[in-house]
């Protein structure tokens, strides 16, 4: 399972501010650090740092439009993150189901002895 998970990608999307930035960029199609900072409770410098993290893991890409850098979400990389999340969720569902069966078996054995 661990070979399927990209820790840097998960770390990047683990931050709520970065998730909100991704939501805003997806809704708007693209955005600038200044535009995002106007809609988030963080400074423009903080937004720029968050965008650098997202860019480093490939979740966003910047393009120059005049004097601005506009950021867009890489939907392929986002789909990869979603697929990883689904895979981990399925693995945990299986683990929890096994734990439930073990607990039920222990409970049944205890009741049978009474």
Describe the structure.
With 114 residues, the chain is mainly alpha-helical. The protein has helices at residues 7-13, 16-28, 33-39, 44-56, 75-113; strands at residues 60-65, 68-73. A two-stranded antiparallel ribbon has the order 1-2. The chain has a single domain, classed as Orthogonal Bundle (Arc Repressor Mutant, subunit A), CATH 1.10.10. Helix 3 packs across helix 4 (44-56). It is built from five helices and two strands. It is elongated and about 80 Å long. The model has no long low-confidence stretch (mean pLDDT 90). The longest helix is centred in the C-terminal third of the chain and has 39 residues, at 75-113.
Shape: elongated
Derived structural class? mainly alpha
CATH-defined superfamily: Winged helix-like DNA-binding domain superfamily/Winged helix DNA-binding domain
Helix content: 55-70%
Strand order of the largest sheet: 1-2
- Computed over alpha carbons, the radius of gyration is 21 Å
Low-confidence stretches: none
The counted number of beta strands is 2
Task: Just give the CATH class.
Answer: Mainly Alpha
Main beta sheet: strand number and arrangement?
Answer: 2 strands, antiparallel
Tally of separate domains: 1
Kindly report how far apart the N and C termini lie.
Answer: 41 Å
Total of DSSP H or I helical runs spanning 4+ residues = 5
Order of helices and strands: HHHHEEH
Beta-strand fraction estimate: 5-15%
The CATH topology comes to Arc Repressor Mutant, subunit A
Average of the residue pLDDT scores: 90
């Amino acid at each position: 399972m661990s070979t399927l998970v990209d820790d840097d990608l998960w770390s990047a999307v683990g931050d709520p501010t970065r998730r909100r930035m991704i939501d805003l960029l997806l809704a708007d199609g693209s955005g600038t650090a200044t535009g995002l900072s106007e809609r988030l409770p963080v400074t423009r410098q903080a937004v720029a740092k968050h965008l650098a993290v997202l860019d480093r893991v490939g979740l966003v890409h910047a393009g120059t439009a005049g004097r601005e850098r506009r950021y867009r979400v890489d939907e392929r990389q986002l789909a990869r993150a979603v697929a990883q999340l689904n895979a981990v969720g399925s693995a945990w569902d299986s683990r929890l189901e096994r734990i439930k069966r073990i607990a039920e078996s222990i409970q049944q054995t205890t009741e049978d002895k009474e």
